[in-house]
Design a protein that fits this description.
There is one protein chain. By secondary structure, this protein is α/β, with parallel strands linked by helices. The protein folds into three domains: 8-200, Rossmann fold; 204-393, no CATH class; 397-544, Trna Endonuclease, Chain: A, domain 1. Helix content is 51%, strand content 15%. The strands form four sheets. Strands 2-3-4-1-5 form a five-stranded parallel sheet, sandwiched between helices. Strand 13 (478-485), helix 21 and strand 14 form a beta-alpha-beta unit. The longest helix has 22 residues, at 371-392. The protein starts with 14 loop residues before the first helix and ends with a helix.
C-alpha cells in the first residue's frame, strides 16, 4: 500500500539522516547521549525512515522501542508503550521481572482512572528496564506532538523530566506538524531544546527524485524532460512520486514502449482526476478535513489555486469577508498548506493546488452537459501544463531567472525571514564571469541596480571575491547582491559573501519567486567539477518559509 511505511527494497534514499541516527546510536553506546527530533511534512517518509533505522543492525546493548502516538487517548498510548517496551526487551533477555512489575503498576493506575500518574509511570519504564538488564533503550515517539491531546496538565514538562534524568536512554521524537513541533521543542521543552538535534526531513532533491523515478520505473526509459517535469511538479514528494510512478508502471507494463507525454497525461488523469485515483482520494480527504474545521476554507483555497495571492484578491475571489479570510489564512498557515511571503499567500503543495484548480473546481462548479467534457478539459490542462513547463525550462536558467526578476513591479516579498521590495527593472543583461558555470545577471531599474551571481557549480573563495570585485564597477548605483546556486558554497566563501552583505539563495527561494510570479518552478542543475557540490535540490518549501 502506498500509505504504508516503505520497508526493505521499497525504502529509498535518506542516507544522510540514517547515518546521523546511527552515529547518535553509537554515541549512546559509548556513553554520549544526543536526542534527535525528526520533523517534516506528512507522507514525506518519516515513519519509513524510523522503521528503516530500527531494522538496521544495532549494537548488542541497545534496544529500540517504537511507538506512534495516535488519537486514541492516554490509556491506549500507555498500554502500547508498556507492551512494546516489554516485548522488545523480552526479545533480547530471558526475564525482566522488575520491569514487568512496573508495567503492571501502569495498568493498575489506568484502571483506577489515574491517567497522569499512569503516564509518568509509563515514562519510567525505560530507566527500569535499563537498570535491570544493562541494555540501553532508544525510545522513538512518532507524532509526539499529539501527546498534547491527552488532557494531562504539563504533559510535555512530564516528558521533559523523564528525558532529563534518563541519561542512558536516547529519545527520537518525530512530527508532521512542523510549526507545532518547533513550538513544543522551543517553548514547552525549552530546557531540553539544546539537547535535541532537530533534523528536517523534506522532499527529495533533484538527484534523489530522479534516482527514485529510475528505481521505480523498471521497463523502458523516461525522456529526460519528462523525468524532470515529474520531479519538479511533485516537488520531489515521495508519496506523490510513488502514486504517479505506480500508475505509470502499470501502464508501461502493458505498453512498455509508451514512455511519451500522452502516457503521462493518461497517468495523471487516472491518479488525479478519476474518483478511484489515489491522489484524488487523498486530496478529497484533505479538503474534507479542512471543511470540518470551517466550510469557508474551500472557497479560500480555490481562490488561491486560481491565482489570487494578496488578501484583497482572495477576498474578492472567495467572497469571504476580509476578517474571516485573514483568520482562515492563518489557520491554513498553521496547517502547513499555505505559506506567507510578505503580502503574498501561496499554496505550498503544488500538486494539491493543481488538483483544486483542475479537478475539484471542474467537478463541483462547472456545469457541463456530461462527464466527458470534464475529462477532456483536464487532459488538455495536463498536456498544456507539461508543454509550457518543457518550453519554459528549455532555455538558459540564468536568462529565465533574469526574466523572472523583470516581471515584478514593486511587490514586497519575504524570503528566508528577510523582506525585499522587488523593483520594476527596465533591463536585464547577462554578463560573463571568469569561471565556467558562473554567470552574472545585471538588473537595472529607475534608481537601482541589482547584480546576481548565478552558479551551476560549487563556489569557493575566489569565485565570491571575483563577484564582489565585479560589482564594484557599479559603485553607488548598486543596491543588492544576491548569490543563487543549488551547489555547495565553501564555509569561508560563505563568510566572505555575508561580510559583503550578499544574500545567498538556493532553489527554494528562487522557486518561491516563481510561484509568486505565476511561473513554472525550475530545476537548478549542478556541474560536478573538482570543486563542485555533491548536492542538488528542488524546492524545500518548509526551509524556504
Amino acid at each position: 500500500m502506498l500509505l504504508d511505511p516503505a520497508i526493505g527494497s521499497n525504502f529509498y534514499g535518506r542516507s544522510d539522516i540514517l547515518a546521523l541516527l546511527e552515529k547518535r546510536a553509537e554515541g549512546l553506546r559509548s556513553g554520549y547521549r544526543q536526542n534527535v527530533a525528526v520533523i517534516g511534512p506528512s507522507y514525506c517518509g518519516k515513519t519509513s525512515l524510523l522503521y528503516r533505522f530500527i531494522s538496521l543492525p544495532v549494537h548488542k546493548d541497545l534496544v529500540p522501542v517504537y511507538i506512534e502516538v495516535k488519537d486514541k487517548g492516554l490509556p491506549a498510548f500507555a498500554e502500547k508503550f508498556s507492551s512494546t517496551l516489554i516485548y522488545r526487551y523480552l526479545d533480547r533477555t530471558e526475564g525482566i521481572p522488575r520491569t514487568l512489575k512496573a508495567s503492571k503498576a501502569v495498568e493498575t493506575l489506568l484502571k483506577s482512572g489515574k491517567g497522569a500518574k499512569a503516564f509518568r509511570a509509563a515514562l519510567e519504564l525505560p530507566a527500569i528496564a535499563f537498570a535491570e538488564t544493562g541494555l540501553k533503550p532508544v525510545v522513538i515517539i512518532d507524532e509526539f506532538d499529539r501527546l498534547g491531546g491527552f488532557g494531562i496538565e504539563d504533559v510535555f514538562a512530564e516528558l521533559g523530566k523523564s528525558i532529563m534524568v534518563q541519561k542512558d536512554t536516547m529519545y527520537i521524537v518525530a512530527s508532521s506538524r512542523i510549526k507545532q513541533a518547533r513550538e513544543i521543542l522551543s517553548e514547552k521543552l525549552s530546557l531540553l531544546f539544546g539537547n535535541f538535534e532537530v533534523c528536517e526531513l523534506g522532499t527529495f532533491g533533484v538527484k534523489e527524485a530522479c534516482g527514485f523515478i529510475d528505481s521505480r520505473l523498471t521497463c523502458g526509459d523516461l525522456p529526460p524532460e519528462l523525468r524532470e517535469f515529474i520531479a519538479s511538479f511533485t516537488d520531489g514528494h515521495p508519496f506523490y512520486l510513488d502514486a504517479v510512478l505506480v500508475d505509470m508502471e502499470k501502464r508501461t507494463g502493458r505498453l512498455p514502449q509508451c514512455r511519451h507525454k500522452d502516457e503521462l497525461v493518461n497517468t495523471f488523469t487516472e491518479t488525479l482526476f478519476d474518483s478511484k485515483g489515489i491522489l484524488n482520494q487523498h486530496f478529497s480527504v484533505v479538503l474534507t478535513e479542512f471543511e470540518g474545521m470551517d466550510r469557508r476554507m474551500t472557497p479560500v483555497l480555490l481562490a488561491l489555486s486560481a491565482g489570487a495571492k494578496k488578501l484583497a484578491e482572495i477576498v474578492s475571489t472567495s467572497r469571504v469577508k476580509k476578517p474571516e479570510a485573514a483568520a482562515l489564512l492563518e489557520k491554513l498557515i498553521d496547517s502547513g498548506k499555505v505559506s506567507k511571503h510578505g503580502v503574498c499567500y501561496l499554496i505550498r503543495d503544488k500538486v494539491f493546488e493543481f488538483w483544486l484548480k483542475n479537478v475539484y473546481h471542474s467537478k463541483e462548479y462547472l456545469f457541463d452537459s456530461g462527464y466527458e467534457p470534464k475529462i477532456s478539459r483536464f487532459r488538455e490542462s495536463v498536456s498544456g501544463f507539461i508543454d509550457s513547463y518543457v518550453s519554459e525550462n528549455s532555455g538558459e536558467r540564468a536568462r529565465i531567472t533574469g526574466e523572472l526578476f523583470m516581471s515584478f513591479r514593486g511587490e514586497l516579498v519575504e524570503l528566508s525571514g528577510k523582506s525585499l521590495k522587488m523593483p520594476h527593472f527596465k533591463s536585464c543583461e547577462l554578463e560573463r564571469s571568469k569561471t565556467d558555470g558562473i554567470s552574472y545577471i545585471k538588473l537595472s531599474g529607475a534608481d537601482s541596480i541589482w547584480v546576481l551571481l548565478f552558479s551551476y557549480r560549487g563556489l569557493r573563495d575566489n569565485h565570491i571575491i571575483d563577484y564582489i570585485n565585479h560589482c564594484r564597477k557599479y559603485k553607488d548605483g548598486l543596491k543588492r547582491r544576491i548569490i543563487i546556486t543549488a551547489a555547495d558554497i565553501g564555509a569561508n566563501a560563505k563568510l566572505i559573501a555575508k561580510d559583503a552583505k550578499c544574500l545567498i539563495w538556493g532553489p527554494a527561494e528562487l522557486n518561491i519567486l516563481m510561484d509568486i510570479a505565476g511561473r513554472h518552478r525550475i530545476v537548478l542543475p549542478v556541474e560536478h567539477g573538482d570543486d563542485a557540490a555533491a548536492c542538488e535540490g528542488l524546492m524545500d518549501s518548509e526551509n524556504a518559509s
